[in-house]
Specification:
Number of helices: 5
Order of helices and strands: HEHHEEEEEEEEEEEHH
Helix content: 10-25%
Number of strands: 12
Structural class: alpha+beta
C-alpha cells in the first residue's frame, strides 16, 4: 500500500510554468455603503442611488505569469471605470506585482491619486494556517488556508500543490503551491482563477515594472497617510484598499 502511494506521487504531474487568468469580484453595494460613516451621513443618498441604478458586483480580469519561481501579476484594463462618487480603493486593481521567490524580493507598481509608485521591498510574509478543507478551482483540487494580513484583514486562500510555484494574485503568496482562489470576506472582494494554462515561458518576459517614484513599504504608507489621514472614520477602510 505504501509502495502504491509512493508510485502515485512519483507519477503525479506538476506544473512549473504557465499563465493563470483571474476574475476579481467586488461587492459594490457593500463597498459604497462603507463610505457612509458617522462623519459622512450626507453620503446616504449616494448609496441609495447606487443600489437603484448600478450592478451589485464589479468583475475585473487579470493575468499571472509564472515560472522559475517568479510571478508577474498584471491587471486587465476595465471596460468601464467607477464613477467618482461611488469609487472605493477596494473596487479597483491598481497594482502590477512582481515577486521573485528566489531572492525574496517584491516590486509593485502602484497607482495612487494620479501618482505612480514603484514599491521595492521583501515579499509579504503571511502566517497561513491550513484547514484540511478542499475545493476545485479551474480544474485543480485546492486546499484551504486562513490568515490575517496587515494586522487585521482576514483572508481565506485556496492553493493547488499541482503547481510548484508559491505565488498567487496580487501580493498573496507563501503556501506550498499556487493560490488559485482568495476571499477577503470582511472587505467584500474575491479573486478566483478561471483558467490555468501550462506552457513554456520565456523567463526573460517575467520582469518587474520599472516606472514610478521609488519607495519601500514604509515610505508608501507615509505617502498614503499624508493624503487620507484626515478622512475621518473612512480612512481605515480606504487604507486597507490601498495596501492590500
Amino acid at each position: 500500500m505504501v509502495g502504491s502511494s509512493v508510485l502515485f506521487a512519483q507519477n503525479k504531474h506538476f506544473i512549473t510554468a504557465g499563465t493563470i487568468e483571474f476574475e476579481r469580484t467586488a461587492n459594490m453595494f457593500a463597498l459604497v455603503k462603507k463610505k457612509i460613516t458617522p462623519s459622512t451621513p450626507q453620503l446616504k443618498p449616494i448609496y441609495e442611488q447606487y443600489i437603484k441604478t448600478e450592478p451589485q458586483f464589479r468583475k475585473l480580469k487579470s493575468t499571472l505569469t509564472f515560472g522559475n519561481h517568479k510571478t508577474l501579476f498584471v491587471p486587465v484594463k476595465p471596460e468601464k471605470e467607477v464613477a467618482y462618487d461611488y469609487d472605493s480603493p477596494m473596487a479597483d486593481q491598481n497594482n502590477i506585482v512582481y515577486n521573485d521567490m528566489n531572492t525574496g524580493t517584491s516590486i509593485i507598481q502602484k497607482e495612487f491619486f494620479e501618482k505612480r509608485f514603484l514599491v521595492k521591498d521583501t515579499i509579504r510574509k503571511i502566517n497561513w494556517k491550513l484547514t484540511g478543507e478542499k475545493r476545485e478551482i479551474a480544474g485543480h483540487i485546492c486546499h484551504r488556508a486562513n490568515a490575517i494580513v496587515l494586522d487585521s484583514i482576514y483572508v481565506v486562500a485556496f492553493y493547488s500543490d499541482d503547481i510548484h510555484v508559491s505565488g498567487g494574485p496580487e501580493s498573496f503568496n507563501g503556501l506550498p503551491g499556487m493560490i488559485l482562489g482568495i476571499a477577503v470576506p470582511h472587505e467584500n472582494v474575491t479573486w478566483f482563477a478561471t483558467k490555468v494554462t501550462e506552457e513554456p515561458i520565456d523567463y526573460k518576459t517575467i520582469v518587474p515594472p520599472e516606472k514610478g517614484i521609488r519607495v519601500n513599504n514604509k515610505q508608501l504608507y507615509d505617502q498614503i497617510m499624508a493624503v487620507i489621514g484626515d478622512w475621518g472614520d473612512y480612512y481605515i477602510v480606504a487604507l486597507k484598499g490601498y495596501l492590500l
